[in-house]
Amino acid sequence: IQINQETYDPLDSSNYFGVEPSCKETISRAGFHGKGFVELPSHSLNRVANLAFVFRTLQPDCLLLLAGYPQRILGDYDEKDTKGNYSIWLQDGHVNLWINAGSGGIHLISEMGVNDGEYHVVSVTKTKRKLQLRIDDQLQASKHLPNASSIVILPGSEGGMFLGGIPPTSEYDDLPPEEKISLHGAIQDIVFNNHTIYLGNPINFVGVQLGRVGPQMGSNGYLHEVLMKTEPIGKSFTKPPEGCHRDETGKCA
């Protein structure tokens, strides 16, 4: 197969599942089918920071992003941790954000529901201890981190940031049930501190199609289903076999 005068083998997937090696440097999306995850280097949040990504799903409950030390991510939001972590998930169709800078955390919930299969933008801005959650550029919630702690420190290049799901290990047993549900949808265009995070060189990924849009859903998915169910025009005008008499349904009698 040749595209733009470049030849590649579509069956060569030894390094990337469902991704052509020739485009690995520009992969910015991933398709999830409810049974996998992508692990990337984690990103600390300094005094002034931001993160954002685009996603779509029909699920009311699922994990979108989780970053931090597994043993420090607890289901009890009143528990004080000694290491930083943050996570974003859906519960009852609303975006939930949990951020802890090491001396207690805060929990923000969006006002609008987003599990309609359409693309939505989740953005978080951090200015010292103030956190703001926005969906599609609309402010949803705002809170301040407790005490004087304002920096969320994470492992960095060692990994620890997961998209669309988590590994099936006991380290995450204390997470809320909603955060243990893998995503069925897509995540793309991840940005930390105004820099796009590419997915062409993940630390680990299982059951995820890198570089793909995931399952069909939303308005585009509906159009796709309609086109698939519609009989081709050429077929509808096929000349009937000799001796065939069509009845009122169009079938040969």
From TrEMBL:
A Pfam family reported for this protein in Swiss-Prot or TrEMBL: Laminin_G_2
Domain Laminin G span(s) in chain numbering: 27-244
Superkingdom in the source lineage: Eukaryota
PROSITE patterns: LAM_G_DOMAIN
SMART domains: LamG (SM00282)
InterPro entries reported in the protein's UniProt record: ConA-like_dom_sf, Laminin_G, Neurexin-related_CASP
Annotated CDD domains: LamG
PANTHER family attached to this UniProt entry: LAMININ SUBUNIT ALPHA-LIKE PROTEIN, PIKACHURIN-LIKE PROTEIN
UniProt name for this protein: Laminin G domain-containing protein
